[in-house]
Amino acid sequence: MSDEAVQIIARGPRTVAEAAAEAIENNLATEAVTFSILEEDEERDVWRIDAFPNDPDERAAAVEILKGYPELRTVVEKLADADWLAMALSGLPPVRAGRFFVYGAHDKGLAPASTVNLRIEAGAAFGTGHHGTTVGCLQAFHDLLKAQRFERVLDVGCGTGVLAIAAARTGSRIAVGTDIDAPSVRIANENAALNQCDARFVHASGLNDQKVRAEGPYDLVFANILAPPLVALSQDIKLALKPGGIAILSGLLRTQERRVLAAYMSKGFRLVRRLHRDAWATLVLKRA
């Protein structure tokens, strides 16, 4: 299969699948591999990992990791020579998370009149609203909005920009997103224009970038990234927030909750709420 695009599929018990997914996420050789983990058959306790390596080296590394879990049934399938990302997105249904309805161009006519409708086109960026982490962030934000509004919002690792756009569409005066990936920033700004909102996205390598600090301190920070950078950024996220500000963290597996939570509690945060969707976790924290 040399340079052909492939999909790696692994099935097995939840505990084994979660451990394998964490191993893929934490291995330097596979840190850029896009993957998902979800429950496929509740009665039989079958969970499924879908991984999409970018090159042969990542494919070999991911397969080698999965071989270390013999209870998983792993197959590698060739992807057809086509824009498989666009094809996959065209088949995705719209997503409802609280007051938010996330949809693509193919479902424009399905948007209800009673929801905050967010048209999100992914391109090469992460965050269409279908992933458990993005849904968790939107649901957590919806619930927080029942009691308060957030004037200044920052989205760390913005991907498609869906979270900052959701904030701008629900009254946040300042909604800034940042990403280390320049194409994601371009896509996020295009999505902001599609949604006719004032969310702004910048290419920056960290929260100390002047383009990020200029609008702070923030009332709320989204960080839907991965567990290791969430831990590494705990102090920077604290400094980006006002005292009493809220952090909504996701991109972590349930098995990684304790490590991420410990890092933030050591900085004076307290846990407000946790949400689970499939194997993924979302944490809502409040800065002291």
TrEMBL record:
Query: Gene3D superfamilies, alphabetically?
Result: Vaccinia Virus protein VP39
Keyword Ribonucleoprotein found: yes
What protein family does this chain belong to? Belongs to the methyltransferase superfamily. PrmA family.
One GO cellular-component annotation of the UniProt record comes to: ribosome
Pfam families, per this entry? Answer: PrmA
Q: Care to name a GO molecular-function term for this sequence? A: protein-lysine N-methyltransferase activity
Q: What is this protein called?
A: Ribosomal protein L11 methyltransferase
Q: What is the lineage of its organism?
A: Bacteria, Pseudomonadati, Pseudomonadota, Alphaproteobacteria, Caulobacterales
Superkingdom? Bacteria
Q: Which GO terms describe its biological process?
A: methylation
* EC nos: 2.1.1.-
Location within or outside the cell? Cytoplasm
Q: What is the role of this chain?
A: Methylates ribosomal protein L11.
Query: Which amino acid positions bind S-adenosyl-L-methionine, per UniProt?
Result: T134, G157, D179, N224
- Name the reaction it catalyses: L-lysyl-[protein] + 3 S-adenosyl-L-methionine = N(6),N(6),N(6)-trimethyl-L-lysyl-[protein] + 3 S-adenosyl-L-homocysteine + 3 H(+)
Q: Does the keyword Ribosomal protein apply?
A: yes
Recorded hits in HAMAP family, A to Z, give: Methyltr_PrmA
Keywords tagged on the record: Cytoplasm, Methyltransferase, Ribonucleoprotein, Ribosomal protein, S-adenosyl-L-methionine, Transferase
